[in-house]
Amino acid sequence: MSFVIEKKLKNVMTFYYLMKLDKKIPTDRKFIRKRQGKKVHELMKCAYEVPFYRERFDRCHLTPDDFRSAEDLAKFPVLTRADLREWMQKEYDAHPEMHERWNVLSTSGSSGTPLKFLQTQRESACVDANWIRVLMYAGYHPLRGKLFSFETSHKHVDAKKGDSIIQKFGLMRRRVVSEKNCVGEGIRDILNEVNEYQPDVLCFRRNCLVRMALYAQRNNMKVHKPKIYVPVSEMVDDMTRKVLAETFGDGLMDAYGSSETGSCIIQVPGAELYYINSDTHVVNIYDEEQHLADEGKVIITTLFKKDFPIINYEIGDRASSVTVDGVRYIKNIKGRVNDLVRHEHSDETSALELMKIPNGIVGIAQFRYIQESYHDMRIQLVKDPANNAHTKEEIEDFFQKKMADLFGEEFQLHFDWLDVIPPDENGKMRCFACKMQ
User: Fold this and answer.
1) Which terms are listed as keywords in the entry (predicted)?
2) How far apart are CA 6 and CA 67, in angstroms?
3) Is the pLDDT of residue 171 over 60?
């Protein structure tokens, strides 16, 4: 089949896969386990025919018959970003005749180095169908709903292009804007457009939604409250939830995933636990010895990717979980630590403990740590305009005490109070960055 035909049929394939996926979160855990186990076995049978994975099977003396459940995947080697990068490059170099038929996608580079990976049209259709049904979990209707989202590297804004014929009839309505405008007074324009369009779903990067919420609060703007709003690309902490709820309401949906895997861990509004998309993914948690655990590293397997399978992918984030009747649910996602705290006379340590400090006091809307030297830590803070329970001085004293509890007198703290913390060049915002070479 030619690339042109495949491209034209992609929407048809997306609709086909959407019809096969769960539209509501299943509650029958016996069914979840049985179906997921069957899909794991089918995936491993396909992977056995892929040379990259066949070598891994042989190295561990395994066959597809050894994999009948989500837990069985713990027998298989972990796939690192470096492994994936090397494999994707070899596939690309070895098959120039397929270049026009493959989508060559790239991650944002928030982990330090952008990762390019390959995707067939079929896999791309599966990813799109999965995202649509994720929104459907929270009540979005793909035909009648209205979606307001940001421009991505795969979906660009065309200011000259208006609604399609279908959209003019009130179907599949969506509006896409550039996040580059989400600065300064450009935020007012976006908020005015949200109020005019009144979307059912609002989908932006977390740091953009926070900037929009803070702008609205400082300027006493009333903002349309969508049925669902989805902060994507970045972790959502308790502090962020409070700031967003004050402007956008109670419809926050936390959808976790990556460019490589698609959305796989979902918390619908009002839910306590995160559900794992059991028909498209397996998410296991490994400890430092690569054993299954309740808390540790997030390891993702995509059950729908049969052309370029992603099996036991170590994405770099951490989470805690609970297993109920044999089905794993995620309690909280701690996110990745792209930089480690560096010490002059000891090993590097995780920055996770730093992330907990702001949650111990109210009145902060945004924060970021920047380690500038072995003994200098800069802390950027944004005051929550809706909460004056503590002064800036009291908040600084709180940070001084908590940092001393962690590191003694190792760091001198430098505080910067800002109106808003700008994102990194890739559009995301890290909460900790080490600037030391």
Assistant:
1) Ligase
2) 32
3) no
